[in-house]
Structures are given as structure tokens and as C-alpha cells.
Design a protein that fits this description.
With 538 residues, the protein is mainly alpha-helical. It has helices at 6-13, 18-52, 66-94, 96-115, 122-154, 160-192, 210-219, 222-234, 239-245, 249-260, 268-276, 288-317, 319-325, 337-370, 372-391, 394-398, 403-418, 421-427, 438-463, 481-499, 511-515, 521-532. It is found in: Membrane.
Length: 538
């Protein structure tokens, strides 16, 4: 019934036009900023250790203590999880557009504030940095359900998957931009303020001006978010929210007439009929009816996102440790502070350029051709294969002659994460749930993902430590080593492959058919006809 509304049908069959690409850029710039802000911290943590935790006479440069490192790396994830749940719920209550601007302003303010972290002691600086990064994460969290829902509700049936995936693919450019900004800033400061290696002059290797480097890198994230704010405020509310949740079909028809540049009738009599026939579809999130229709779907979207992010974020955040372990980045004591930032950023940018960014855009190209289910299953399968291929002969890959091979294999795991579940876990929850619960359910699925990211970020930090107590990083207990950690991640990917079977294929179907929003309405319409003698349009 709902998808017989002319305004929704017009959206489903609309040809790809300028407003689709405008929506991708406006929503995508939020994700560009999200990825930049979440991943740039991994490029400056070693610098923070040198600046604030230097010990005179130590053979190695200062590093963040385990609890501080876990907090700096993980606190934004805690904020993101909270933001996904809160703004997901708020997006269904207040409307997508009203909440959309709030998340962006939080991101702009907290990006700048992160770079202005202050304090007379290392503990003071780290505490204020963690405080602002929590709230930065809170704003970022809101962008997940809102961007996905807005794009899915604006898109047509034929290319909806590609449009939602394109919004998410802006993450790849955000990661790339984070690396490039770190390279440019560190290279500029390195050229302006030359310094010896740590082993030559421990104190002189970290110039005082290096304190500006990490601040500039973190604050840069505010620029793309700030540029997008005006355009977000100009976007109309989505027609599906206005018509199906707010029940204002006249406003939905007016908004979409301007956007699609076609005449759309308001059809007030259909709204009246739907309002009367809506009883069967007024169930909430915590009801038996939701459990019957969508319980397994929500379990599928949440569990696959949870399992994916354990592997994805532990790989991404700790790339620099893996590169150091195989010798791709020289030992810390042979470099000065700015040189270390430069080399970590260069390695991460190379991985992003060669595997991360292409993987996202492969998904955009193929998601509406081979479907979400096939891409997700294939991605988890190859991530499992490559993770075990890295882990089982791990000693072989650490030998100098085979290091390039290790990086190539490692890049393939990233490629199939992005041409696979990292994109599809974002797309599907925006398609398969009813309009009035769509943002909330996407927020729950995304929050499960961030819970997985925290397991990856905190767990891998400890797990990857060598088993020999004499070889661990300062302050860390012995772990299970990189090899065993990679085996665990391979098993996690295999579980993700199994849980994918709970997720339905959504390719080429209208949102109302997928969410079964018409189910139960036809019977109620028939009852209205029989009891009132009125003609109710179908």
C-alpha cells in the first residue's frame, strides 16, 4: 500500500540525476571527516609518546603507557557507539534533517578542541584530548545511521546500493587524506626544524615544535565538515519520513517535486486510508511483531558488523606496529620524532591508496549487479583466507626477502574488507527495516560494529605483544604474539561468513517491500471498505 503512493513510486523509478550526486557528496563529506578523525590518531600516537612520556637514559623513545594508549585510541569509539544509538533513535523521532546538522557541528567543534588540548602535565593533556575525542566520536556516531538512511530514502531502486556505498566509500578518501596531511605537515616541520636520530641525541631528536604537528593534523578534520554544514541545512527532509512517519504527504510531494523537477500529486485520500489501516504496522522495536518480522535480520546485521569491525579496526589502528614488526618502518631509535610520523603516515597512505580506496569503489561498481549478499560472503571468505595465509607461515613473512610479499597479502585483506563486508554491513541496515525504525535499527547495527572495533582496538593492543616478557613494549604484559593474533582474526572473519546467512538480499527491491510495511494493511483496508462502504484507494 505504502509503495503505491505516487511520491514514493516517483523516487523508486527516478533516473539518476544531479540531486543524487549532490546528496552523495553532502552525506559523503561527513564520512570523509569521520574516517579522517578516527584514523588520524593512529599516526600521531608514537609522537605523543615521545613528547609526553620521555624517560632520560632510556634506550628507546618514550611511548604511551598501555592504559593511556588504549584510552587515546579507543575513547572516540566509545563516543561513536553512544552517538550511533542516540542519534539513530533521535533521527526516527525528530526526522533525519533536524538531527543531521547537530552531528556535523559537534564534529567541527570537537575536532578543533582536540587540537587545542591543554594541561601542565602529560596526564592533563591526555585527559583533555580523550574528553574532546569522546564527544568527537559522539558526533561521528550520529552520522552513520543518518547518512545511510537519508541516502537510502532518496535513492531509486535500481542504483540504491551504489549510492549508499558511495557515501560510505568517502571513508577511503578520508583515510587517504589523513595520511597525506600527516605526510605534508611532518615533512614541512622536518625541513624547517632538522633534528638528529634518537640514538644520537635523545632529547634533541624531538624538537619542541613537534607539539604543533599532532595538533594541526587533528584540527584539520574540522575543515571538510565545516564546508558541508550549509548544504546539509538546505537538504529537504526525506519523502519517506515525511509521508510514512510524519504523515504529511502534501509536504513530501512538494519537497520531491522540487528535487525531481516533476509534478507529484499529494493524494491526501491515500494518507487518510493508510492512517486508518496502520494499526497492523504500528509495532515498536521491543515487540513480538518486530521480533517475528525483523528479529533475525537485526541479529544478522548487528553480528556481522560486530565481527567485521574486530578484524578491520585492529588491522587499521595497528598497521604501524605490524609494519615495524616486519621491518618496513625502521626501529624508532634510528629516527627523530618527525621522521617517525612521516614514515608511519607514508606506509599507511600507501596501503590506503593501493587497497583501501579501490576496494570501496569496487563495491560501488558491483553492488547492484551481483548483490549485497554475494559481496559480503565473498569478502569475509577472502579475508579469512588471507589472514590465515599471513598467520600460519608468519616467520616466513618476517624475513627480509619476503617483506614486500607480506605487505601485498596484508593489502589484499584490506581490499576484500572494503570490497566486501565493510561496505555491505553499512548498506543493508538502511534498506530492510521500516521507515519509522530505520534509523534506530541502523544505529543499533552500527553500535554493535563499534563494540567490535573496541574489542579489536583494546584487545589487539595487548594480544599482539610477544610471548617473551623481555621483548614486550614498556608497561605491557606478555601477549600471544602477532602470529596468534592474526589466527584469531582469521577465525573471527570465518564467523562473519556464517552470520551473513541471516541477512536478506535487498538488491532491486523497493524499501517498502523489503521492510514489509504493506503487510497487514491490505486486510485492514478490506475491513474499512466492508464496514464503511467507502472506496479506499490501493
Amino acid at each position: 500500500m505504502a509503495n503505491d503512493l505516487q511520491v514514493l513510486n516517483a523516487l523508486d523509478v527516478a533516473k539518476t540525476q544531479l540531486y543524487h550526486f549532490t546528496a552523495i557528496v553532502i552525506a559523503g563529506m561527513g564520512f570523509f571527516t569521520d574516517a579522517y578523525d578516527l584514523f588520524c590518531i593512529s599516526m600521531v600516537t608514537k609522537l605523543l609518546g615521545r613528547l609526553y612520556y620521555h624517560h632520560d637514559g632510556a634506550l628507546k623513545p618514550g611511548s604511551l603507557p598501555p592504559n593511556v594508549s588504549a584510552a587515546v585510541n579507543g575513547v572516540a569509539f566509545c563516543g561513536t557507539l553512544a552517538g550511533q544509538l542516540f542519534f539513530g533513535w533521535l533521527g526516527d523521532k525528530m526526522g533525519r534533517k533536524k538531527v543531521y546538522g547537530m552531528t556535523l557541528m559537534i564534529m567541527v567543534i570537537c575536532s578543533i578542541a582536540s587540537g587545542l588540548s591543554f594541561g601542565h602535565t602529560p596526564k592533563g593533556v591526555m585527559t583533555t584530548l580523550c574528553f574532546f575525542r569522546f564527544w568527537l566520536g559522539f558526533g561521528i556516531g550520529g552520522d552513520y545511521p543518518l547518512s545511510a538512511t537519508i541516502m537510502s530514502e532518496y535513492a531509486n531502486k535500481k542504483t540504491r546500493g551504489a549510492f549508499i556505498a558511495a557515501v560510505f566509500a568517502m571513508q577511503g578518501f578520508g583515510i587517504l587524506a589523513g595520511g597525506m596531511v600527516a605526510i605534508i605537515v611532518s615533512a614541512a616541520f622536518k625541513g624547517a626544524f632538522p633534528a638528529p636520530a634518537y640514538e644520537v641525541d635523545a632529547i634533541g631528536s624531538t624538537v619542541p615544535q613537534a607539539d604543533f604537528v599532532w595538533r594541526i593534523i587533528l584540527m584539520f578534520g574540522a575543515i571538510p565538515a565545516g564546508l558541508t554544514y550549509y548544504w546539509r541545512m538546505k537538504m529537504p527532509e526525506t519523502a519517506r519520513y515525511t509521508a510514512l512517519v510524519a504523515k504529511n504527504l502534501k509536504q513530501a510531494a512538494n519537497d520531491m517535486s522540487k528535487v525531481l523537477q516533476v509534478e507529484i500529486e499529494a493524494e491526501p485520500e491515500k494518507v487518510a486510508a493508510i492512517s486508518e489501516a496502520k494499526g497492523a504496522n504500528d509495532f515498536g522495536l521491543f515487540t513480538k511483531e518486530f521480533l517475528r518480522r525483523h528479529g533475525l535480520h537485526l541479529l544478522g546485521t548487528a553480528s556481522t558488523w560486530f565481527l567485521l569491525d574486530i578484524a578491520f579496526y585492529s588491522q587499521n589502528l595497528f598497521q604501524k606496529d605490524i609494519f615495524s614488526a616486519i621491518g618496513w618502518i625502521p626501529p624508532a631509535q634510528t629516527m627523530n620524532a618527525l621522521e617517525e610520523v612521516y614514515k608511519i603516515a607514508r606506509a599507511q597512505t600507501l596501503i590506503a591508496l593501493c587497497s583501501t580506496v579501490p576496494g570501496y569503489w569496487f563495491t560501488v561498481a558491483f553492488i547492484d549487479k551481483i548483490g549485497r549478499f554475494a559481496i559480503q560472503l565473498m569478502g569475509f571468505f577472502f579475508m579469512t583466507v588471507f589472514m590465515f595465509a599471513l598467520a600460519i607461515p608468519y616467520h616466513h613473512w618476517t624475513l627480509k626477502d619476503h617483506r614486500i610479499g607480506f605487505v601485498v597479502m596484508y593489502s589484499f585483506t584490506f581490499f576484500f574488507a572494503n570490497f566486501g563486508p565493510n561496505a555491505t554491513t553499512f548498506v543493508v541496515p538502511a534498506e530492510i527495516f521500516p521507515a519509522r525504525l530505520r534509523s534506530t535499527c541502523h544505529g543499533i547495527s552500527a553500535a554493535a560494529g563499534k563494540a567490535g572495533a573496541m574489542v579489536g582496538a583494546f584487545g589487539f593492543l595487548y594480544a599482539a605483544q610477544p610471548t617473551d616478557p623481555t621483548k614486550t613494549d614498556a608497561g605491557y604484559p606478555p601477549g600471544i604474539g602477532v602470529r596468534n593474533s592474526l589466527i584469531v582474526l582469521g577465525c573471527v572473519n570465518f564467523l562473519g561468513m556464517l552470520f551473513t546467512f541471516l541477512v536478506p538480499e535487498s538488491n532491486g527491491k523497493s524499501l517498502e517491500d523489503l521492510s514489509r510495511e504493506n503487510e497487514g494493511e491490505e486486510e485492514t483496508v478490506a475491513e474499512i471498505r466492508a464496514t464503511s462502504g467507502r472506496t479506499v484507494p490501493v
